[in-house]
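Long-time lurker, finally posting.

We've been working with AraC-like DNA-binding protein (Victivallis vadensis) and I want a structural starting point before designing mutants. I don't trust myself to interpret raw outputs, so I'm hoping someone here can both generate the structure tokens and explain anything notable. Sequence follows.
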Amino acid sequence: MKYHFETVLPPPGASFSTELNTGPVLDCLFHVHPECELTLVESGFGTRFIGSSLEPFSELDLVLIGGMVPHHYLTRAADSTGPEWSRTRTVKFLPGFCGKDLLDRPEAAALRTLLGEAGRGLHVPPEHVPGLLGPLRSLFDLEGLPKLLKLLEILDAIARLPLRSLNPAPPTEAAPPPDERLNRVLGFIHRRLDRGMPVTLAETAAVACMTPPAFSSYFRKATRRRFIEYILGLKLNRAAQLLIRTDRSVLDIAQESGFPNLSNFNRRFLADKGVSPRDYRRRHRRSLA
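Top reply, 14 upvotes:
Generated this for you. Predicted structure of AraC-like DNA-binding protein:
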């Protein structure tokens, strides 16, 4: 299957790249590249896709992924509050950026394990991210050997944390990379949901120039999710963000997120998040206090 392949070019005299991105929204193609990627979200919120994982993200979200892992971050224009509402820091480096000899040394055992597991997508627990902000931000101001040593310091610190795998499949079973047709389909889905419009299988299959049965098979192979599961996940993640960030009633949030029936929304939310919408709001409000 074809896919959007991103070419990463480190600056002259460097073995890896650092990118500070700001804008009214964060939206990129579902893409892959050979480099590992460490992404810190400093502001903005939306939905994060890593391999077959689909989760909400917000400020201080920090994720490490391995090379050739399909990924995509999506925010909604309706949530943006200004030209720099979205702000991310991204570090991209090849697994052997520091040299095979260094990685083979016993002192680098934790780093070796970290890079080996990065193909699953590794999420840093939010309570540990503040301690990494200083080193991560200083990394962007350094050059030469001090910059390389700082990245090693950051990765070593991350390797010693209780990380959460985003995908249960072993790193050798990465989700198949998507193609340009899938990017067109995802763009159609996201625009429709952003405008509060329904998304049907037949209409989406037409965008892909496929019959509904053929499209269902294609979509599941490309994303490892059934079409209806993907749509449901987007709606529930949108509802989760509204529960945390607004004081609107659960009924209002359910309806805006595409659930006209409150009982159905409560049941779906509980099955996906493990808690009721009200408990979800209470827990996350308490953790942000």
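Before you design anything, note these points.
The CA atoms of residues 239 and 257 lie 6 Å apart.
Residues 180-288 form a domain with the Arc Repressor Mutant, subunit A fold (CATH 1.10.10.60).
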